[in-house]
Every structure is written in structure tokens, then in C-alpha cells.
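Can't paste images in this forum, so I'm doing it all in text. The chain is below; anyone willing to post the predicted C-alpha cells underneath?
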Amino acid sequence: MIGRPDRQRPERRRSVAEAIFEDEIGLQFGVYGEFRLWSAYQPIFAPRGRSLQPVAVEALIEPRRVATPVAPQVFFDSVAAKDRLFVETMCRMLHLGNYRNIGVDGLTLFFNYNPMINDYLGRALAEMPGHQPDLGDFGLEPAMLVCEITEQAADEHVLARL
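Text version of the structure:
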């Protein structure tokens, strides 16, 4: 539903922190039902002189069910519509929280973002990575983030507002 948030419904985004845990070596993972969600980072290289150097990583989610990897699309297709904002927010928080574990300073962090998961389009911009005030807590600043708006957001009205 597009419109104002339902003020009677509990805000699931506030419970995201309760669904994120840290393992014994400091890697954060999320729990959604029977799934465990882990951050995966695809390195992006650029020519620097006569060699390729890492310049960025693309944040991806690696879902697992009972320690068995599950294709991300299979996982996301299984997420109930009412939980999509919660899951997207959890994935974003996992990527931000695990960025410090990459082990290479100064890499740009690429995010995929689908603003259509918001039930109120007015907060879509505030939800985008880079518009969150606590990036410094993750060792990031807005200039280190690249946000790709996913093709599901092809609605021209949404794109114009972003």
C-alpha cells in the first residue's frame, strides 16, 4: 500500500537490531525465520598504473538454511510482503556492520536499493544508504557509498522523488 504508514501496526524496522547477532570472530549475521543471512562482498577492481587495484565492493546477501546456501532470489521470493521492509533494512544494516571486516581501508561500498519496499514513499529517500546519520559508526562516510536503485523501482514517480 502506498500512502501514510499505518500507525496501528508495530514498526518492524525498530526490531532489526534484535535480529542481528555477532559470531565469535565479530561477523554479524541476521536471522529471519529459518534463514541465516550473511554479508558477501564482490570486489570491484580498476586499473591503477600497470595493475588492477581493489577500489570498491558490492554488498550482497548470502542466505543459508540450516547451513546450506540458498539462492538470494529464492530467499527474497519467500519473504512475505509485510516483512520486506524489515528484511531489506536488516540486510543493509548487516552490510554496514560487516564493512569493517573487509580488511581493506577506503573501499567504496555499492548497495542495491529498492525504494518500492517502503509502504510510504515519503521515507524512501531517508532509507537510502548515505542518508543515515550513523555512518561514522561503521567507518563510512556518504562519499564512500554508491546506491544502485533496482530495476523494480522503474516507476517514474518514485524515481523523480528520489
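The radius of gyration is 16 Å. The chain has one domain: 12-161.
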